[in-house]
Amino acid sequence: MPSPQATAGELGFTTLVLESCQFSRDAALRAAYWFSRDLDIEFPPSECESTYTVVLKLKTVLPMLDDPKPKSLAELVSEFQNALIDSELRVRVQRETSSVRELLLAKAFAEAGVLEDNPPGSFYDPVQAAQQNIQSNLITITPKE
Amino acid sequence: MSRIFLPLEAYRPVETSYELLPFRFTRFTGDRELLVNETGEYLFAPAGTVAKLVDRKVVFGSPLYSSLKAKQFIYDSSSSPNLDLLATKYRTKYAFLDGATKLHIFVVTLRCDHSCHYCQVSRQTASHLEYDMSTSTADRSLVMMMDSPGKDLTLELQGGEAMLAFDMVKYIVGNAQKLASQRQKNLDIVLTTNLANVTDDILAFLKEKRIKISTSLDGPAFIHNANRPRPGNNSHELVLRNIERCRDVLGFGQVAALMTTTQLSLKHPIEIIDEYVQQSFHSVFLRPISPYGFAIRTRRKTGYQMRAFLDFYKKGLAHILDINRRGYHLVEVYTKILLTKILTPHGTGFVDLQSPAGAGWNVLVYNYDGDVYVSDESRMLAEMNDFTFRLGNVHKHSRRDILTSEAFLEVQQASCNQSLPGCSDCAYQTYCGSDPIFNHATQGDSFGFRPTSAFCERNMEVIRCLFEMIGKNDPDTMRIFWSWLTDRNVSETAKEMRV
To answer: CA of B20: which chain A residue's CA is closest?
Structure first.
């Protein structure tokens, strides 16, 4: 997955232009959450659907007692770009596995009787069920007398 | 007798695409990624594995493919998601939810003869009898406790200093045991005490009723006495002498001790741990200070940054491992709790590191005046005039009222790390927990803000540090960890691992 393109601004900020097909807004928001301690992060309104921008501004550069060597904007931007890639992967894994996860939790807690509605999809494990129905392929081996 | 098998070709691996099962991941040191599935099983893999996994580029039949399949990160047409197995593992991990409230803390009195800087309790001097629990409050609290659905209950009697109101302790214990027997519950009783006021009569009663002791030992005299001042400045001397008396009368294993880390303690992890060894304890709990009660007011004396505590913890853990290597069984309690979650299929009953939070669901606190709180920490907030987590009062409300109160529901809502921002994506989620009361006290919001949360900083770093050690797979260290998890000496575990 390629890294997003960064443009350094003049006044201590950086603008990232992201392609929606590569990095969903959901992924960008999740990455932004972890950086909101050190950065002010803006998502300006986007003019087209295929791209959007993220503006990263450093909150403070002054050393404090609990943070004597604060990170520079360049360091934080580089970390943000990596975090963005990870976030996008997490979004994809979650998108792909959310129904299995719901089914898993439903099965795990079914005996508590707390389910109001049946979860979406089949409650049965389709592969296991299929494997139980392949009796016709079985062959018989009889040991020699 | 004949046996039936599938034809030979059925056992040959057939190249096929795979499907993902739910998991989370994080980048890890040494150019690796750590993948953790929904039930806490983990896998170290080379950097870039998750991207390959998502793009279906993991090579079929490779060792990595097999590991991913075996640990239920993926399944393919020759396997199955085996959801029943995963669901069983999941249910095992969350078994602590079963039975609801198991720990019931009774604040027998607010009176105390110590004036600890960090005390979580808004203590009162020993003459203020109006801060003792009344018999009617005790009766109502016991009824509410016994209404809990669980069969195994723990009654913890604390203060202030509970021994200053020992008649009330006797009253509660007598009635609790009677009620437990009527309702066919198993009852464990723990008395939390500084042990300064123990007498032979008290010891005889504790022995008769099989009550366990939980006391405080902050380290050697110069730390303990500085942290826990009392008239005569002899808290350390008293606690050591009375630990021995309790062990003699009640039995060695009936006495446990806890320490609290103050600014002074931070500089002395080795001395504190050595004191525990010298007093023949086999466990020590390196606990940070809680940001409640007097700890807030005396922040200058007791407070510190979480980073400093983590240094203290790491130095302490290294020393504890060294002590184990030399043959003395000494467990660091918090590490053991996390290792249980990481290395075994089980969760733990430790209420401060659960999701949903143990506060309220697994523990209730009955104050001397009948007010009920989700945890001791939330009671401390009330002593600071913040009643956010007061659930009701035993004289006015039923257990049903308490567990459907707005305060209770808010705690539950804010305490599922599976759905909290920052936590829902975190690789360590299964091993971690949430603490809405801590979030509220330190950040003014029950849901909390992970990037600046000391709870998050502590747990992420401690778990990372443990995975670092697990990843190194040093046989000595792993033997010690397994000896902790199986409650056996290192030498026994070593023999077993060699076999």
So the answer is: A97
